[in-house]
User: Fold these one by one.
Assistant:
Number 1:
Amino acid sequence: MEQHLYTVAQIRAIEEAAYAGLEPGALMRRAGRAAADHALELLEGRRDRPVLVLAGPGNNGGDALELAANLAEAGVDATVLHLPGRREASAETAAAYERARAGSVGWIDMLPPGADWALVVDGLFGIGLERPLEGEARELVEGVNALRCPMLALDVPSGLDADTGAVVGPDGVAVRATHTITFLGDKPGLHTGDGRDYAGEVRVDMLGVATADATAEAKADGETPLPRAAARLGGVDLFAGQLAARRHNSHKGSFGDVAVVGGAHGMAGAPVLAARGALFAGAGRVYVAALDHPPGYDSTQPEIMFRLADEFEFDRRTLVIGPGMGGSANAMRLLAKALDGDGPLVVDADALNLIGASPDLQSRLAQRKAPAVLTPHPLEGARLLGMTTAVVQADRLEAAREMALRTNAVVVLKGSGSVIARPDGEVVVNPTGNAGLATGGSGDVLAGICGALLAQGWPAWEAAAGAVWIHGAAADLLVEQGVGPIGMTAGELPAAARAVINRLVREAGAR
């Protein structure tokens, strides 16, 4: 099932449309009930212990006050720490405040030292926050982040940008939640950048409101249609159509050739890792076309064939260019040759840096007719766009979109919640993977997997989305098996990726 991601502006439009057909305060009451039900699930077996509810001055605080009243009615010892604002509260929030005051909810003015909370609920600030937390709010967030207990954020962890996944402000702070219940639609910022660290496990509650994506046809009665999602979470459905069991009557040539171009002096390991990724992802034949004198063979995977790049024929092969390639004049010449070719291409690592520094190479890339997938990490992406890494990370979705538009290619902006974008503006945020992928060579393996999928005939969009999902799922599988995330190595990923791919093919055949 597709999981759509909505910007703050889109959520506001959905909210406004919902208000038109509901009585005042209905959405806030629904949010308070949904959040309370989720909190009661998290409190299973610990309902005799107190719960702290942080309520801010806006409607997010109103949701928290409704939750507190609901928990108290359920017999939970709920205590509210309320931060009133300078402006008058909305009528709905004022009503929620009165309801909480009228019940058995407890009230405190500051965070008590040494309290043992079963759960902390964050309802300080929602999706409308535009300035970094400061003063009392900042101190409160720093205080609750030091607690060792589950933390449930309402809509979005306070201090986190719901659109971008960045903590608001260059020296900002945000609530580090273990769980987030988000309303009226999922938000991209919960799944990329800092989002996965701060949002924890995300649950979406639509509060009984339909969006355009959930409606089969647009309304024909002249009403303004609700907005469609700006992005979506990646999933197997994005590339399921490419998953198929192999025919018995096939041979190695049936599954394409992948050539990894790289391996300058002292950097032979990177192309070997990419080649292993391609081999274990099902490519029929895999070569390393090395810029420096290549090794005779890979003792771990002797199936990989080594050639000298200057003497290697690029035609009729899928190229993965860049791992360990360096920045020499010969590297630039080989990259230009690859960009001028008519085969599928994965551009990674040093090749991205060369393109970022050369308007000529950028032009060659943008004019390609054959499929191309770029796999930059944030620094490489910043070089391609001519900006700083901080600017890229401040809005990962927009940076990926811009790279895809400029290069006329599918772009994978790597990182926590990798972002896949294509030139028409379609964006996917990948949900798989873990911190074990933050290790040298991990990106080389990803490039190899992507090259293998392209070589087997997958379109560029499906190959990129599939490679990123499989690569992350391989890391997740290793963690399940007790390997990592600490100490996980890139060399362990190819075999795990093979297991993931074969499992997906079996599941596709069973449906």
Number 2:
Amino acid sequence: MSINRTAVITGSSSGIGLGIARGLAATGMNVVLNGIEPEEQVDPIRRAIEADFGVKARYDRANLMEPAGVRALMAGAEERFGSVDVLVNNAGIQFVSPVDDFPDEKWQAIINLNLSAAFYAIKAAVPGMKKAGWGRIINIASAHGLVASPFKSAYVAAKHGIVGLTKTIALEVAEHGITVNAICPGYVWTPLVESQIPDTARARGMTEEQVIRDVLLAAQPTKKFATVEEMAALAVFLTTEGAASITGTALPVDGGWTAH
């Protein structure tokens, strides 16, 4: 069990982030959830974590598009719990378009949230982790941090950047008991992915089964979605002493996608 440790998980009001938050709470960590949903919408989720695992959970709607918002999230967590021992940078958005039509504001938003927010959160977390002589930083990258797909220039650039950031910070903090790793999921079965299937089917004139097989899972040799629980299990392992020598890595959880 984790004694008096606290994890901040960005983008954790649903999906992968929430799964990781629950996984870390199950080890005894207090957790700080973050998202854009109204507090009253997330409060039942927060209270369920407290009831299920006997830890403290906080929800913070800090705006991660701005450095000041990221700093406020991290400072609030330290003020409430005394430390940030585990940081999971999960928040992200996506937009798909040919580069010549890619809106400037979409590029900037994706870079701000998917890459810059992680940098500012790490910058805020590292001093306390150094002082404690222990810390775990986990960046949720993507298979697109290792390989590319067309029409996703901003997302692929940001996720490649996250992998590079992971390696760089891992080298900087290696002697301070802090590990830094990136998890690189392929397609994960989440409510967000599920909700996109009917629209994609209509747009492409395909059945939903064809969309799953020939569009979403075309690059994943297993032809199966990864699960939120699998992401959480890996994140939890990376916080354990058994993973103390795993740092600076980009770990694919992609059904073999990047083995091509």
